[in-house]
Amino acid sequence: MMARWKKALAAISACALFVTGLSACGSASAGGDAERITLVVWASQEDQANTDSWLQTMEAAFEQQHPEYSITWKNQNVASADAAGIAKQDPTVAADVYTFASDQLGTLLDAGAIGQVSDPTMKQLAKQTKGNATMLQTVTGEDGNVYGVPLAGNTWFMYYRKSKFTEQDITSLDAMLAKGKVSFPLTNSWYLPAFYIGAGGTLFGKDGTDAKSGVQFGGAIGAAVTDYLVDLRNNPNFVNDKNGSGLAGLKSGKVDVVFTGNWDAATVRENLGDDWGVAKLPSFTLNGKQVQMKAFAGSTVYGWNPYTKHPVAADQFAAFLSGTESQRKHYKMRSVIPSDSELASDPAIEKDAVAQAQIDTIAETSVVQPSIAEMNNFWVPCENFGNSIYNKEVTHANSAKLTEQWMASYQSLL
User: Fold this and answer.
1) What is the predicted pLDDT for the residue at 412?
2) Which family does it belong to (predicted)?
3) Backbone angle region of 172, left / alpha / beta, with phi > 0 → left and psi within -120 to 50 → alpha
């Protein structure tokens, strides 16, 4: 499989100047006619619902930019969440270009179903992720190479009732707990790690790709975080967010703060009216110091299949679909918040408070959600520990012991 990647990459590198329209790369016939190719593309149904949807619009724009190709498009409805599961069954018949969720990168690499980006694409990606190391890490494999280009980010942040808090209050979880009801998904293993990682804990090493490093949420600092969470659970202003109770609480007036993502923005606005606010994650007080909460972040990505018959065009099109202008168009057509750092200052996006909260959270208060296979064994023990805290099985008297037992439970799983 590695030989196939290297062969495809060699072809792409040889065609680095292909965008100038030179026929020396072998894509056009001696007579100068465009090369006839077929590209199978997997995308979400929403992106290709009509002939003038985002995908079809981008395909037409790509054709204009690349007259060296005469392309027959075969678009298929495969959501990003399903791509890896389908592609790994037989990469040889998977799409040439497809969208996938970044937490599936490890699965795709194990299956040999994802191609490494070319040098020109890497230059594009470096510009798009400038100042946002987390977004670049979402498409970085265990080998340190990059596979795919992020189209949109994915993380969670904070919504709140503006009339309850000052601008200073919303920077501190403890300040908000002193003034209002704070709902947090304590028993959800996608959210709970924010406290441990914020305090310096690591999950599969610094960049989330070192399986041997395992889960490091223990020690004195880990015990201190657990103690903080015991106090949080016992705080009368804390509400565990489960099965939509946080959003319902916003509407009824029983909750003033929730932690969720852009997918709930419309519901928050409806429930709070003009009193809604949104911000990146706050800090919390640990051992007398302010510690920044850090959310998991991932991305929706476009990549190319190394089994494609057209590696140069596939790499170019995957990069094009996640390019700056394509992301801008995606936002305008479907309100999908872009991952591109350069678009944070776009006038329309700059005045979108939810978009800014997501962009700021990913850039400033997040870590990459690991995509290696070992991550599959992380979730259940973490959820169980969160339940133990919520059910008051974890106390100050046993917090250090049970935190270490939680860490030990991973040793047989990872």
Assistant:
1) 83
2) Belongs to the bacterial solute-binding protein 1 family.
3) beta
pLDDT of residue 364: 94
Predicted pLDDT of residue 315: 98
The domain defined by 33-154+298-368 carries CATH number 3.20.20.140: no
Q: Where are the domains of the chain?
A: 33-154+298-368, 157-296+370-411
Residues of the chain with pLDDT under 70: 1-32
Which of these, 340, 315, 314, lies nearest to 326 by C-alpha position?
340
Give the angle 263-267-273 at the CA atoms, nearest 5°. 135
Strand partners, 216: 202
Q: Which long-range contacts (CB under 8 A, 24 or more apart) does 341-346 make?
A: 341/128, 341/129, 341/130, 341/131, 341/132, 341/135, 342/127, 342/128, 342/130
Cα→Cα distances 143→226, 247, 340, 398, Å: 34, 41, 24, 40
Report the alpha-carbon angle 223-210-143, nearest 5: 160
The residue count for the chain:
414
Q: Please give the DSSP secondary-structure letter assigned to residue 398.
A: T
Beta bridge partners of 172: 283
- Quote the pLDDT of residue 32: 59
Q: Is 393 exposed, middle or buried (0-12, 13-18, 19+ CB in 10 A)?
A: exposed
Nearest CA among 339, 353, 252, 332 for reference residue 298: 339
Burial environment of residue 278 by CB neighbours within 10 A (0 to 12, 13 to 18, 19 or more): buried
The phi, psi pair for 89, rounded to 5°, reads: -65, -40
What fold does the segment set 157-296+370-411 form as a domain?
A: D-Maltodextrin-Binding Protein; domain 2 (3.40.190)
The tokens of 334 are what? 């479907």
Q: Judge contact between 363 and 341, C-beta under 8 A.
A: yes
Residue 167 burial by CB count (10 A; 0-12/13-18/19+): exposed, middle or buried? exposed
